[in-house]
Design a protein that fits this description.
single chain, 163 residues, 7-stranded mixed beta sheet, 4 helices, binds coenzyme A
Length: 163
């Protein structure tokens, strides 16, 4: 289905295509420029080099095509958050679910986390389906500032098998 590989500076142009069209409707609202993509990758790689490691970012590949980005962030010693975005022409194939599954495995093994959280825009039920299919449970809402004011984002959590 899809494979993950560490984000690389070579992915900048592909990221500008990921962060465009319908994919930004419920996320940033703005397409990503090439400069912004380079900056985003630089920051992600800098965070990936921290000890203890606080961030992992992967490009999502379908065959050799970069179709998205998925990130894991440590928010507390054993709690992390997952976020993901896929290029709009790749939606509806189960790719996000497959990518999230793989990140959940890393989170509860090599990253040493025991709880994961994720949230999505209230008008973006597809993202809630992705989380539910990956085993997350809806735990409520969390207010988040957006371009149009504060909105109650849907909040999901997943506990590791050992907890
Ligand atoms: C959310 C997103 C990642 C989904 O990617 P995807 O590869 O299409 O996801 P999948 O194919 O794995 O699963 C999508 C599920 O949502 C369902 N879905 C799609 N549109 C839906 C809608 N309007 N209402 C309810 N469910 C919907 C699909 O039917 C599928 O569920 P199913 O397998 O039970 O049928 C993609 O739309 C995206 O990148 N959105 C913008 C970024 C974003 O919102 N990220 C989430 C915040 S971290």
């Amino acid at each position: 289905m899809v494979t993950l590989r560490s984000l690389s500076p070579d992915d900048a142009r592909a990221l500008t295509r990921v962060y465009s069209g319908a994919s930004i409707r419920y996320t940033t609202g703005e397409p990503l420029t090439l400069d912004q993509a380079h900056d985003k990758i630089r920051k992600a790689l800098a965070r990936a080099a921290e000890t203890p490691r606080a961030q992992w970012s992967w490009s999502i590949l379908h065959e050799s095509d970069v179709i998205g980005l998925v990130s894991l962030r440590r928010r507390a010693p054993a709690t992390g958050t997952i976020s993901y975005i896929l290029r709009d022409d790749s939606w509806g194939n189960g790719y996000a679910t497959h990518a999230v599954h793989q990140v959940v495995t890393v989170a509860f093994t090599s990253a040493g986390l025991d709880r994961l959280e994720a949230m999505h825009h209230p008008d973006n039920p597809a993202s809630g389906r992705v989380l539910a299919k990956a085993g997350f449970v809806r735990v409520g809402t969390a207010d988040r500032d957006t371009r149009t004011g504060a909105l109650p984002y849907e909040l999901y959590a997943l506990e590791g098998a050992g907890t």
